[in-house]
Amino acid sequence: METAKEELYKNILEKRQRIREFAEDFIFIFDKNLCARYCNEHAAKHLGCCPSEVIGKPLSELFPSNSYQTLKRHLQTVFKSGIPVFSEVRITFQNIELLLDSHFSPIRDRDEVTGVLFISRGLPNTGLRSPSIN
Fold this sequence. Notes:
CATH architecture: 2-Layer Sandwich
Order of helices and strands: HEEHHHHEEE
Radius of gyration: 16 Å
Strand order of the largest sheet: 2-1-5-4-3
Number of helices: 5
Number of domains: 1
CATH superfamily: PAS domain
Strand content: 25-35%
Oligomer: single chain
Helix content: 25-40%
Number of strands: 5
CATH topology: Beta-Lactamase
């Protein structure tokens, strides 16, 4: 019986991974040093690389100054308060400015915020370029 439970759990984890990788949302996880610990395929494409090239890079290397300052402020707010932040954020990816509906959610280990899950989705009818890449 344990084998069936283990197999079910493995299938659930695989489905979750596929959802994260194929979502047309920008999904990142940042640590307390504001370094990327996770980046999905969609976000990496907009950064002009693959997810493995993003892991370990500081926020300041991933985004230009105007986007970096806004993202840094939201990430630091979540780390300090432990409360999620929801905001419309203008982010520049490879000289393309996007208006994104963004959620910054704390990741906790016991009572300590150890990371921030940052998920963004393009807002419709903004007049800015659409976030889809071919």
